[in-house]
Design brief:
This protein is an alpha+beta fold. The protein is about 55% helix and about 15% strand. The protein has 3 domains: about 110 residues, Orthogonal Bundle (Butyryl-Coa Dehydrogenase, subunit A, domain 1), CATH 1.10.540.10; about 110 residues, Beta Barrel (Butyryl-CoA Dehydrogenase, subunit A, domain 2); about 150 residues, Butyryl-CoA Dehydrogenase, subunit A, domain 3 (Up-down Bundle), CATH 1.20.140. The longest helix is centred in the middle third of the chain and has 37 residues. Bound molecules: flavin-adenine dinucleotide. The site of flavin-adenine dinucleotide has 24 residues, from helix 5, strand 1, strand 3 and helix 12.
């Protein structure tokens, strides 16, 4: 078993690291305060390949493997959680369904522009005001065929990137009788008449990433904007979420690593009882535990990515990796604040932002409870 990253992977990490240090990290605090999207950084991400990580090279994508995506998201997560969240939602939620399930015409039509980000990003709309975890029972957004068009009515909630997207892959009920084969994914360009994108939500963290509610009022799109197969929307969505969870776990690792790096620096400088904090055993143990947990989560994430790249089943492994990495990030950020004492509670230091950002990770793309359900189902079946 080889745990060494290849030279190519190391170079990719350095490229994304340098970009994140120069273009993302310096604006993280300011954009968190103003809840603003880093449009300038996103313009530069296209040519670097960061907007085409889930798009094959033949459609203008970066053609990187899942491990490289995980590495990139970890680096972006270290710099700014909100920016990283918009990157993962664009790639893993918005572009991936088109790459995986789109027809040749759909891929040629949408993917090259999404890889550059020139017209806007991509989003995936599953959640509704009345449902998030229970998509089968809860999705009420209806799509009905009228001639050669889908007519969509309903509402969605908490959709990352909707306010900066050119298209939104929308999970709709296409069979009113219900059941696991009653849902389908339909691509809705954001300029379509009848689609209302509401003002960005006011959030606790991840504030550089826009999250919007949507209303679909007699939204009409061509029949061939159906993605994949009719009635396969739930299965396609679950496949997408399996991959997306590796991305959310990767950002969590980046957040935790940045938080503990800050705490280590602080512990070496700040003195109490005549010695640096770093010499107190209680502080050393918090740091040792954090480093150990980060490394364990990183290994689970990289393994899930490796399984995906090998074409193996990785549903249980990505759920385990997401569960461990996101719960770990919250704990590590919490202890990083503890090490900073009162300063950790102040916006003078970035730790409190990381803690707020990390809090989302056990909720988005399936809560921790849902991850445990996925894992238990695989183990007990
Ligand atoms: C910042 C942000 C960005 C988001 N981005 C997107 C996006 O891009 N696209 C999108 O579609 N959605 C998005 N979401 C929505 C997110 O995926 C949902 O919030 C999440 O899936 C949980 O759904 P819910 O909020 O409706 O909680 P609910 O499903 O109502 O669950 C509430 C609580 O009950 C628990 N629970 C539910 N069912 C069970 C059960 N059977 N057993 C045990 N516990 C259970 C849950 O774990 C949770 O703790 C985003 C949310 C946020 C906050």
């Amino acid at each position: 078993m080889n745990f060494q990253l290849t030279e190519e992977q190391q170079m990719w990490r350095k490229t994304v690291h340098d970009f994140s240090e120069q273009e993302v990290k310096p604006r993280a605090a300011e954009l968190d305060a103003s809840a603003e999207f880093n449009a300038e950084a996103f313009q530069r991400m296209g040519p670097l390949g960061l907007l085409g990580m889930d798009i094959p090279e033949e459609y203008g994508g970066a053609g990187v493997d899942s491990l490289c995506s995980a590495i990139a998201l970890e680096e972006l997560g270290m710099a700014c959680g909100g920016t990283a969240l918009s990157v993962v939602a664009h790639n893993g939620l918005g572009c991936a369904p088109i790459s995986l399930f789109g027809s040749e015409k759909q891929k040629r039509n949408w993917l090259p522009k999404l890889a550059l980000g020139t017209d806007g990003l991509a989003a995936l709309a599953l959640t509704e005001p009345g449902t998030g975890s229970d998509l089968v029972g809860g999705v009420k957004t209806r799509a009905e065929l009228e001639g050669d068009e889908w007519v969509i009515n309903g509402s969605k909630a908490w959709i990352t990137n909707a306010g900066v997207a050119s298209l939104i892959v929308t999970l709709c009920r296409t069979d009113p009788s219900g059941g696991s084969r009653s849902l389908s994914q339909i691509v809705v360009p954001t300029k379509t008449q009848g689609l209302h994108i509401h003002p960005a939500e006011k959030k606790m963290g991840m504030r550089a990433s826009p999250t919007n509610a949507l209303t679909y009022e007699n939204v009409r799109v061509p029949k061939d904007y159906l993605l994949g197969k009719m009635g396969r929307g739930l299965h396609q969505t679950l496949e997408i979420l399996d991959g997306g969870r590796i991305g959310i776990g990767s950002i969590s690792i980046g957040l935790a690593q940045a938080a503990i790096n800050g705490a280590i620096g602080y512990a070496k400088e700040r003195e109490t009882f005549g010695v640096p904090l770093a010499q107190h055993q209680a502080i050393q143990w918090m740091i040792a535990d954090a480093i150990t947990q980060i490394e364990a989560a990183r290994l689970l994430i990289y393994r899930a990515a490796w399984l995906k790249d090998c074409g193996n089943s990785f549903s249980k492994e990505s759920a385990m990796a997401k569960l461990l990495a996101t719960e770990m990030a919250e704990q590590v950020c919490r202890n990083a604040i503890q090490i900073h004492g009162a300063y950790g509670y102040s916006s003078e230091y970035p730790i409190e932002r990381m803690y707020r950002d990390a809090r989302l990770m056990t909720i988005g793309e399936g809560t921790s409870e849902i991850q445990r359900m996925v894992i238990a189902k695989r183990v007990l079946s």
